[in-house]
Design a protein that fits this description.
With about 300 residues, this protein is an alpha/beta fold. The protein folds into two domains: about 1-160, 3-Layer(aba) Sandwich (Rossmann fold), CATH 3.40.50; about 170-295, Rossmann fold. The chain is built from twelve helices and twelve strands. The protein has helices at about 1-10, 50-60, 90-95, 110-120, 135-145, 150-170, 195-205, 220-230, 245-250, 255-260, 270, 280-295, and strands at about 25-30, 35-40, 45, 65, 85, 90, 100-105, 125-130, 175-180, 205-210, 230-235, 265. A four-stranded parallel β-sheet has the order 4-3-7-8, sandwiched between helices. Strand 1 and strand 2 (about 35-40) form a beta hairpin. The longest helix has 21 residues, at about 150-170.
Length: about 300
């Protein structure tokens, strides 16, 4: 590992005069509010979260991804890319051996000390964390700019925006439905109104019963759900087809959601990753709320 670190440290200390001409330089602001600049379009990209991997592929730069982390399972091509650990602990030696010229980090998901170390070694680190629907489209466009795949990225961002806008128009006059979205089971967790999932709930005509809580993904007591008595309970679960979390609530037949059988499963990868597949997850959520309206 020492040799790899020394090589990258040496590159970081090269004089500015040795850098390529700035004519091809491209810069973008990341979600830390820092400008990241490249001398030329990125050709070897490391994506350090499953969501980052999806976004890079969506930006039209999938063939340039040389490193991913565990659970980067979409698109299928991502499974063929070398994995360098997981989002909470990256194998830096393995990462550096792949010689990336751009690292896509996760603001609150990757260890700060590892991202800072990569920056000290001279690697451009572009950190992302979309929290709103529009920020997902914006992230695709910024990544496409850094990779020089603007045409593909802008087309995908436009498709995503158009699809979400169409859903919003379709449900603009829908009757409100109170919703509890369960993001985790132990500890029991939900989302507040700052989260993109809550934005989808609103887009579908729903009302997040825990919208006013302070934390983005707060822990709550089971008693709080019983007191809120939502008309709909939505959950992802530990897998793409597991409804175990919803089954738990059937022990409370007094809940409106249980009494009306308004317990709906949405595959977590479609709703809990801030990627273009959120459009598919949003359609499923909107369909679920429409079913709940019909059961009144």
């Amino acid at each position: 590992m020492a040799a790899s670190l020394l090589r990258h440290l040496t590159l970081a200390l090269l004089p500015l005069a040795a850098a390529p001409a700035l004519a091809a330089e491209r810069c973008a602001m990341d979600d830390r509010g820092r400008e990241v600049c490249l001398d030329a379009p990125a050709s070897r990209i490391a994506a350090l979260s499953p969501g980052a991997t999806e976004l890079v592929f969506a930006a039209g730069a999938g063939e340039r991804v040389v490193a991913v982390v565990a659970h980067s399972d979409y698109p299928s091509e991502a499974a063929e890319v070398p994995s360098v650990g997981n989002h909470t602990r990256v194998d830096l030696e393995a990462l550096l051996s792949l010689e990336p010229d751009l690292v896509i980090g996760w603001v609150t998901g990757n260890p700060v000390e590892q991202l800072e170390r990569l920056e000290r070694l001279g690697l451009p680190v572009f950190q992302i964390e979309p929290r709103r629907i529009e920020e997902i489209a914006g992230a695709i466009e910024r990544l496409a700019h850094l990779a020089g795949s603007e045409a593909e990225g802008e087309a995908e961002a436009a498709r995503f925006r158009q699809g979400m806008a169409e859903l919003a128009r379709r449900h603009a006059e829908s009757a409100p439905v109170s919703v509890f979205y369960q993001v985790w089971d132990s500890p029991l967790m939900t989302i507040n109104d700052e989260h993109w999932i809550s934005e989808v709930v609103r887009l579908c005509g729903g009302v997040n019963v825990f919208a006013e809580l302070d934390r983005l993904a707060p822990r709550i007591a089971e008693e709080a759900v019983l007191a809120a008595d939502p008309e709909v309970i939505l959950a992802g679960g530990m897998g793409e087809e597991k409804r175990d979390w919803l089954d738990h609530w059937t022990r409370y037949p007094e809940l409106i959601a249980v009494d009306r059988d308004n317990l709906f499963f949405v595959p977590p990868s479609l709703i809990q990753r801030p990627t273009p597949r959120l459009l598919e997850g949003s359609r499923l959520m909107c369909d679920a709320l429409e079913v709940a309206r019909g059961r009144r």
